[in-house]
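Work Package 3 (structural annotation) set out to generate three-dimensional models for the target panel prioritized at the project kickoff. During this period the team completed the workflow that converts sequence records into discrete structure tokens, so that structures can be stored uniformly alongside our sequence database. As a representative example, we reproduce one entry of 120 residues exactly as it appears in the project archive.
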Amino acid sequence: QAQLVESGGGLVQAGGSLRLSCAASGNLFSINTVGWYRQAPGKQRELVAALGSGDSTNYADSVKGRFTIARADTKNTVYLQMNSLKPEDTAVYYCNAEGFTRQLEEYNYWGQGTQVTVSS
């Protein structure tokens, strides 16, 4: 088994910044795609940013130019740098990873989520 641990959430004023971290550990042979999702109360979970093979990136229109997803030097940690935060960014943020275990079985793991609250 493997696990994803998110950190870095918190309370920030509008216009501020936060950096979320997603650290993966365990039975991992490869991490092919890492995505950050968020879910606000009463809303569906949505993709915020994704980092794919070759470090290709994909962002939701609502966060383009404000959020940046990047892989740390350790390779098993991915950051989500969030700048110019808005109250509508308030949500629980989840990390998701897809890849292969050492037994070459596909996996899709979710972290436990971290709360981000942006006050106006």
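The first strand starts at residue 2 and ends at 7.
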